[in-house]
């Protein structure tokens, strides 16, 4: 069965809202959402962002694991070249044990020059950092103590990572460029897609290699009873969100990608979709019929600066008016 989930970046640009209270509200929301039928939570990572974009998703994942019992927890995504892969393997193994196998490790190669410089890495080395890191993580989870020697990492023999996970976590890779998508098809257990783009390229790459395909699909959509009215209220938060990503280089060189000037421009460009329940049911039932490889569909719980209460209203609408009807269609 496909999971429907929530995506969190824990961005808090409101200087009047204390981070501690914000975290507690979000954890309460996640615990409540599980009871509403939400099946997964996905956490993402950035560093040195004034609004507190989550720098510590593993810590948050552990807290979520303690507050839930069935919810699948994953990262979409960890910028793995910024981290020692042994440490990633250890943290992910511990999370898997704490949550009885509910954790999935999703990684990507990253793009923001500022982060790479701060962590002593070079952006140009990110493909090999990612690929070798994935290999080190898999060896660690398997209890391999043979050592490793690559272009970026070197580990001595005789060092077995403990504790090993009782259930090996899925190791997922996010990508948008063609070489990165082909790499995901080759080395990952599944593909973290964005806005349903690039899924066919990934499926073609898996078919060419004879590998099993699995897609975990992050959505940029606002689903509400009156989506245009909701967008009029929260669209400025999306404007802030997307322009920040553009400025970091998420969609190409920042100087070459124009910023959005108003929320309607975002919708006109297709960067966000607005749907009511009927439209969402039709859209996602059709998507899942066309893409049986999709294992999970997840949505931003709330946009940066939007209140948790506002996000919860959409979560309830999704859980009661969309998810059951999509499953009935399927």
What does this structure look like?
- The chain has helices spanning 19-36, 57-67, 85-98, 113-118, 126-141, 178-187, 199-209, 227-248, 263-268, 277-290, 308-329; strands at 3-8, 40-43, 72-75, 78-79, 103-108, 148-149, 154-155, 171-174, 190-194, 215-219, 221-223, 273-275, 294-300.
- The chain is α/β, with parallel strands linked by helices and 330 residues long.
- It has a single domain (3-227, 274-329), classed as Luciferase-like domain (TIM Barrel, Alpha-Beta Barrel).
- Strand 2 (40-43), helix 2 (57-67) and strand 3 form a beta-alpha-beta unit.
- It is globular, with a radius of gyration of 19 Å.
| Overall geometric form | globular
Radius of gyration: 19 Å
Major sheet strand order: 1-2-3-5-8-9-10-13
Q: Can you tell me the CATH superfamily?
A: Luciferase-like domain
Care to count the β-strands?
13
What fraction of the residues are assigned to beta strands by DSSP?
15-25%
CATH class placement: Alpha Beta
Provide the low-confidence segments as ranges.
Answer: none
Could you say how many structural domains there are in total? 1
Main sheet attributes: strand count, strand direction, barrel closure: 8 strands, parallel, barrel
> In whole angstroms, how far apart are the ends?
10 Å
Percent helix: 40-55%
CATH architecture: Alpha-Beta Barrel
Count, helices: 11
- Topology order in helix (H) and strand (E) letters: EHEHEEHEHHEEEHEHEEHHEHEH
Summarize this structure as a short list of keywords or feature phrases:
single chain; 330 residues; alpha/beta; TIM Barrel; 8-stranded parallel beta barrel; two-stranded antiparallel sheet; 11 helices; 13 strands; 16% strand; globular
